[in-house]
Design brief:
By secondary structure, the chain is α+β, with helices and mostly antiparallel strands. It is built from 19 helices and 28 strands. Strand 3, helix 3 and strand 4 form a beta-alpha-beta unit. The longest helix has 28 residues.
């Protein structure tokens, strides 16, 4: 290590799993279930908004089972219990959960609903928290329980909360107003657009259950969850009436309350149910976001005589297409972050030959460099930093238990992002330490070629991410290889680093439009050996206008500026056009980043961006 001390303030490396507590907590839950007359209960890793990151008070799955992954479902019966996780977390769950009490079930083998069909005793009363299960999720549960002639029971108060004696309090971080210069559009203008969309779809109202949509609509941000500047909140937007914003008053200063009150009636969240019921009376048609709305709200609407329209919120596409001010902020954030990345990569190259650098050291250094800008609000997600075989785990999270020293002649993968007030970043680089093997260089180059194919793509308006996804895979496919994750996800403007509805993947059916920001991150992973992922963020822009074109064209503008490791490239695999693109990109990196870094970093950058 260098003499400088680095630390991480926005992320932890503690292994918080406590499998030894699972048996006792499971017994207490079963006692509470018996008291309520339940034969089973479902515990999803979710809050009432279906957020990717949830506040500590909603980490029920982790508290009960010890599993700390971001996706999973526990199913507890009188005699059996299982936790269903996807392929990212099968090994992690087995390490963190008391497997004598919970059977770890890979999602690829069976779904939670199928497990219930196979294990729920006939005639059982199976409970669920209607705040935590969406309408679609409830229908799946209903079908599964019906196969054993069981009854599905909506609980009043979560049984886990009843036995969680030291459950953290709900978060009340201050709500802040977004700078109009960064938002680029006023609240009234956004509300008018939403109202027009409701009229076009013949809807009377829209319930905003996604706090990201609330934050975008009312130009606010907060700090209720880690990694995403969210104020947990709800809203009801009515086509011809004043909106209602439901937010804990403890989060609002007098100035913020006054500013928001100019656009909406401000109410406490506890009043949401009653407001929905009153709105539904008389047959009102209300849109619920099928991805985030609790089934409880649908039940309240139907019971009051309203009509539930379940589908995508019209705000999703409005939010995804960034305006000029938002894109200017994103560009500024990426230039700032590019200087940080150059500083980090130069530091890494100087330190790693000493043989003492660990994965945690690298994470701490990168976060420290970002904090040194004075602009960092949070990291966008826990940094993925994997050396050697750890890099072969696409969603690896380093802890004190797994921390590995970065060795010679291996690849080091680091995937990180930042939340700056003007924009959100997400970038991955794979670095050759020592001399990479021929196989490593081949795989690295095939991934790079796929990355360049996306970056260079020109495509007609109306093209979806699913149609572009093969561009990133074609060179791996030629060698009989592939990667299991999507090629890219949407990214918010100082919001979620994983933003819908558009994505570049096999299931990305939403057409791309100008202003959308997406990641471009193909990869390759050889289990137990090494991994490669190369990621930039791209913004969809207007494409060229060739003579005779029959449709308008779109293209990508790259937002991220950081060198790709030339030492890992097999030049024989690159075409002349690819070499030209990479040289031009590196020249652009140098031109934009060199004036922003110190002399030592500039010297490193000169070599790292030299023509191939």
């Amino acid at each position: 290590m260098s003499e400088t001390t680095f630390e991480a303030k926005f992320q932890s490396f503690a292994d918080s799993a406590a499998p030894g507590l699972g048996t006792e907590r499971l017994a207490r839950l079963r006692a509470e279930m018996e008291r309520r007359g339940l034969d089973g209960f479902i515990i999803p890793r979710a809050d009432a908004h279906q957020n990717e990151y949830v506040p500590p008070c909603d980490e029920r799955l982790a508290w009960l089972t010890g599993f700390t992954g971001s996706a999973g479902v526990a199913l507890v019966l009188r005699e059996k219990a299982a936790i269903v996780v996807d392929g990212r977390y099968t090994l992690q769950a087995a390490d963190q959960v008391d497997t004598a009490s919970f059977n770890v079930v890979p999602l690829a083998r069976t779904t939670p609903e199928r497990w219930l069909e196979q294990n729920l005793p006939a005639g059982s009363h199976f409970g669920y928290d209607p705040w935590l299960i969406t309408v679609d999720g409830l229908e799946k549960l209903r079908r599964a329980v019906a196969t054993v002639d069981g009854a599905l029971v909506a609980v009043d108060g979560n049984p886990v909360d009843a036995i969680w004696s030291d459950r953290p309090a709900v978060p009340v971080a201050p709500v802040t107003l977004r700078d109009p210069a960064l938002a680029g559009e006023g609240v009234d203008e956004k509300l008018a657009r939403v109202s027009a969309a409701l009229a076009e779809q013949k809807l009377d109202a829209l319930v905003l259950s996604d706090p990201h949509a609330v934050a975008w609509t009312f130009n606010i941000r907060g700090g209720d969850v880690r990694f995403t500047p969210l104020p947990l909140s709800w809203a009801i937007l009515r086509r011809d009436e004043r909106p209602m914003l439901f937010v804990d008053g403890r989060k609002l200063s007098n100035a913020t309350r006054d500013a928001l009150a100019r656009h909406a009636e401000i109410l406490e969240p506890m009043l949401l149910e009653r407001a929905v019921e009153r709105l539904a009376a008389g047959g009102t048609a209300i849109r619920l976001d099928q991805a985030t709305a609790p089934s409880l709200l649908a039940a309240r609407i139907e019971a009051a005589g309203g009509k539930v329209s379940s589908g995508q919120s019209p705000i999703a596409l409005m939010q995804a297409a960034k305006n000029a001010a938002e894109l200017a902020g994103m560009r500024a954030a990426h230039l700032r972050d590019g200087a940080v990345l150059a500083r980090f990569l130069a530091w890494f190259d100087a330190e790693v030959p000493k043989g003492q650098l660990t994965e945690i050291d690298a994470v701490c250094a990168l976060e420290t460099f970002r904090r040194d800008t004075g602009a960092l609000k949070d990291v966008a997600f826990p940094t993925i930093a994997g050396a050697g075989p750890n890099a072969a785990l696409p969603h690896y999270r380093v802890s004190t238990a797994t921390n590995r020293r970065i060795g010679l002649n291996e690849l080091f993968l680091i995937d990180s992002g930042a939340q700056y007030v003007d924009g959100t970043t997400d970038v991955t680089r794979t670095i050759a330490v020592g001399t990479p093997s021929a196989e490593m260089r081949d795989r690295f180059t095939r991934v790079l070629k796929g990355h360049m194919a996306i970056a260079r793509a020109i495509f007609p308006a109306g093209t979806s991410g699913a149609q572009l996804d093969p561009f990133a895979r074609q060179f791996l496919w030629q060698a009989g290889l592939d990667f299991d994750h999507g090629t890219g996800h949407g990214v918010g403007a100082y919001l979620s680093v994983h933003e819908g509805p558009a994505r570049i993947s096999k299931v990305g059916t939403v057409p791309l439009v100008r202003g959308m920001v997406l990641s471009n991150e193909p990869g390759f992973y050889k289990p137990g050996s090494f991994g490669v992922r190369l990621e930039n963020l791209e913004v969809v822009v207007e494409g060229p206008e060739p003579d005779g074109a029959e449709k308008p064209l779109l293209a990508f503008e790259t937002l991220t500026f950081a060198p790709f490791d030339r030492r890992a490239i097999d030049l024989a695999l690159l075409t002349g056009e690819e070499r030209d693109w990479l040289d031009a990109y590196h020249a652009d990196v140098f031109a934009k980043i060199a004036p922003r870094v110190d002399e030592a970093t500039r010297a490193w950058l000169t070599a790292a961006t030299a023509p191939l």
